[in-house]
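Budget justification aside, the reviewers requested a transparent look at the raw inputs and outputs of the sequence design task funded under Objective 1. We therefore reproduce one unedited record. The lines immediately below are the structure tokens for a 103-residue chain.
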């Protein structure tokens, strides 16, 4: 097993790129089932900080979809707890954000 990449101390920047979603999904090591969703464990695709992200499942809420594949687009953002210069007070992460598709 390769070592995880080192954390990059980039300046805080609200930023997304096409590859972030795939990079995050590829880095996910585990999904911990929660009462109402899953907890994803992965690495931020921008700063490589380890992050956990709770995803609340929408699947059982509301009306049933009619024959459509149940995919949900979930917005994620970096929640790494390391320092990033210029980060607004009370925020976490390096500012990276992206969407993943859950089925
Ligand atoms: Zn990050
Ligand atoms: Zn970071």
């Amino acid at each position: 097993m390769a070592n995880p990449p080192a954390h990059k101390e980039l300046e805080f920047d609200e930023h997304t790129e096409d590859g972030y979603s795939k990079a995050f999904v590829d880095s996910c090591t585990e999904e911990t089932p929660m009462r109402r969703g899953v907890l994803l464990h992965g690495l931020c695709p921008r700063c490589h900080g380890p992050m956990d992200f709770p995803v609340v499942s929408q699947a059982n809420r509301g009306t049933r979809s009619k024959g459509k594949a149940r995919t949900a687009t979930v917005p994620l953002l970096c929640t790494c707890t390391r320092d990033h210069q210029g980060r607004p007070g009370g925020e976490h992460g390096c500012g990276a954000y992206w969407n993943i598709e859950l089925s």
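The CA atoms of residues 43 and 50 lie 5 Å apart. The pocket of zinc ion (ligand 1) is lined by residues 44, 46-47, 49, 78, 80, 93-94, 96 (CB under 6 Å). Computational costs for records of this kind are itemized in the attached budget.
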